[in-house]
Amino acid sequence: MPKSLDTAFALEVKTDQLHIINQFSSSLMQLDTVEELLEYVTSEVVSRLGFIECVIYLADDKTRTLKEMASIGTASSHDTYHIDRTEISFDQGITGYVASTGKPLMIGDVSQDPRYIADSRPALSELCVPLVYKEKVLGVIDCEHPQKHYYNDTHLEILSTVAHLLSAKINQVRTVEDLQQTVMQLNDAQKLERSMLQIANLTYQSSELDSFFESLHGIITSLLRADNFFIGLYDKQLDVLDLVYIIEEGVRSNAHKKISKEQLKDTASYYLLNIDQSLLFTKEEFQQHIDAGHFKMVGRQAESWLGVPFKVNERISGVIAVQSYSKSYHYDEHDRALLTYVSRQISMAIDRQLSRQELEHRALHDELTGLANRSLLIERIKHAILRLARADKRHQHALLYLDFDRFKSINDSLGHEVGDHFLVKICELILGTIRNTDTFARLGGDEFAIFMENITDKQQIKDALERIQQVLAEPLDIDGHLLQASTSIGVAFCESSRDQAYKLLQHADAAMYEAKSSGRGKVKFFNNTMRKKLKNHADIENDLQHGIEHDDFELYYQPIFAIQDAQVVGFEALVRWHHPSKGFVSPNDFIPVAEDTGQIINLDLHLLELAAKQIALWASKGKAFGRITVNVSSRHFASLDFVAQIHALYSKYKLPLGSLCLEITESGLIGNLELATKIIKGLEPLEVKLCLDDFGTGYSALGYLHQLPIHILKIDKSFIDHLNKAHNPLVDAILSLAQSLKLDVVAEGIETEKQLAILKQTQCKFGQGFLKAKPMPASEAEKVITHGLV
């Protein structure tokens, strides 16, 4: 070929190659992925350059290997073109050499080069250029040809240009992909953070577990796939797994599933709970555990299984598990970490729920017996009364009010621990006699109630009462003590939705007191006579405060005298109520009402002030009245305020020291003897004496004498009544006890000369009674102070 033609042909080839390069440069703008790039380079660039066999490798910096990503070549008639070696180390062959040095290499005869590694179809010449961006080797373009010395400098130049452009584009694409990946990771992190915050808020805001689980599942499915999802609670004592929330094949199951002891041992959940660690299985790994006998297949086998255990308390453990049935979706360590976090939130939520339930139970149940308390009983009565509006007219409700007989004496004689065990045993027996729909409640102390709903026949009540009496008929062995239980019961009914819970309780209570006053083990039904008594009680309650404010109360004074010479040594102040419409109201009628309602506190303070005024008046007249004894409720001995109130009276009226004496009845129990002692000690500077009335009629007098600084004993009138014919040994015993404790004694209720004569022969120093004087107004008492008793 003439030289001019050679030059023209070379120019044409050069022009064509430049056109390919220019077209490649513009096409790079349209390509977005590395795979598209490499495919375009091999099919549209390298092949058009006339390179019949070419492979593009990309470098893996971590393993320092080259991995085949794209190739072109001439296939034989029998197969398609393929590369035998798809992965080459940096220290292997000509390709590895170029990757490790970062420099191109053109070899005319590879058979003479020891670095050459022959493929299934050996080549004779090779052109290999690195893909380099900013001195970092990204890969290699490796071209081979079956002819020796096929490649020339032009080929090297143009392939190097292609490699340069390709390297820049690969770096650009990777940078964009990295940025996209970073953005995706940030979005995923933000989504995860939002989800974690939602779960945390859900944990502390949800008041009901089922809705908590449902909301929790909704959040979890936004983060990972959960074709099957369940939460199970394992009770160690019962050895039962309760599946409290279940999603199967994407469908919610509303019913709890309890896995019995027999089935439980075969489950993956039980295996997980036993080893106490999370488990992440592929389908194959799950099968391996089945083959090893760790558990059995339950249900359809999943492609991926993830379970995490958690602990609620010493008794309750749990498991949360998810399953995927998709071959393209498998759980990973990220999912395990997520579900572990979720398990902790579930644990806290369940613990809070159980704690809340326990608090609610404590708030509505008696701690000793576990029975419903007054609040829960009233709530159930209210709801039951409302239901009467929709019920058959034959339906009614009944309330049985129980008071256990002689419980106080058992407590005092055998101790509170025996008393508590006695109560618990009685409650267990009675609980076995009532219906499942009945409410058995402890109202306080030894008072209980049984609320029976939807009674259609009063025979049902009689049968219930008979069952109670039967179970209490036999003596009970309580801590080695043989004790006989019995109960006084009052029964009241409500028939209308207009009835009120507190009135039903009030009526049953009134009936119980009637039963108690009739003897042990009696039953009384509320009736109209009791209704009138309650109305009178309510009227007195309403009028008491009015009487205090309008000065309707007056003190009468009964002299206390020396047994030997009848000299007056003081007075007992006794209250009289002159009601504006009812006239005289007996203390026996209004004092119990005042005690029950708490109005006794204000009434006592009012009477103490009346007494203080009278003392001050007599003191100003120079009357030698001794001391005035005022009866007060034991309720005053529950607060140190009483000390300040008595000091205030002494200061306000300038009372002589020791002129005021306080009297409590033995039956008016003082709950806190330690505090009562502090109160009495606080009154010592005023020389206030404490007198114990009705001594010998209650159960706790000896305890009082040992623990309270009592100064005076009063022998109850019931003992003095038996002094008509001879000495009463009980009176002698009381006098002997008082003498040994250095206490003064006052004999109450002296009504005959015979009684006084007998008392003169004893060590009893003081007395009072109708024989010498009845209670009298202050004006008459003043005459007694002046002239003495007749």
From TrEMBL:
<dbReference type="Pfam" id="PF00990">
    <property type="entry name" value="GGDEF"/>
</dbReference>
<dbReference type="Pfam" id="PF01590">
    <property type="entry name" value="GAF"/>
</dbReference>
<dbReference type="InterPro" id="IPR029787">
    <property type="entry name" value="Nucleotide_cyclase"/>
</dbReference>
<dbReference type="InterPro" id="IPR035919">
    <property type="entry name" value="EAL_sf"/>
</dbReference>
<dbReference type="InterPro" id="IPR001633">
    <property type="entry name" value="EAL_dom"/>
</dbReference>
<feature type="domain" description="GGDEF">
    <location>
        <begin position="395"/>
        <end position="528"/>
    </location>
</feature>
<dbReference type="InterPro" id="IPR000160">
    <property type="entry name" value="GGDEF_dom"/>
</dbReference>
<dbReference type="Pfam" id="PF13185">
    <property type="entry name" value="GAF_2"/>
</dbReference>
<dbReference type="InterPro" id="IPR052155">
    <property type="entry name" value="Biofilm_reg_signaling"/>
</dbReference>
<protein>
    <submittedName>
        <fullName>EAL domain-containing protein</fullName>
    </submittedName>
</protein>
<feature type="domain" description="EAL">
    <location>
        <begin position="537"/>
        <end position="789"/>
    </location>
</feature>
<dbReference type="Pfam" id="PF00563">
    <property type="entry name" value="EAL"/>
</dbReference>
<dbReference type="InterPro" id="IPR029016">
    <property type="entry name" value="GAF-like_dom_sf"/>
</dbReference>
<dbReference type="InterPro" id="IPR003018">
    <property type="entry name" value="GAF"/>
</dbReference>
<dbReference type="InterPro" id="IPR043128">
    <property type="entry name" value="Rev_trsase/Diguanyl_cyclase"/>
</dbReference>
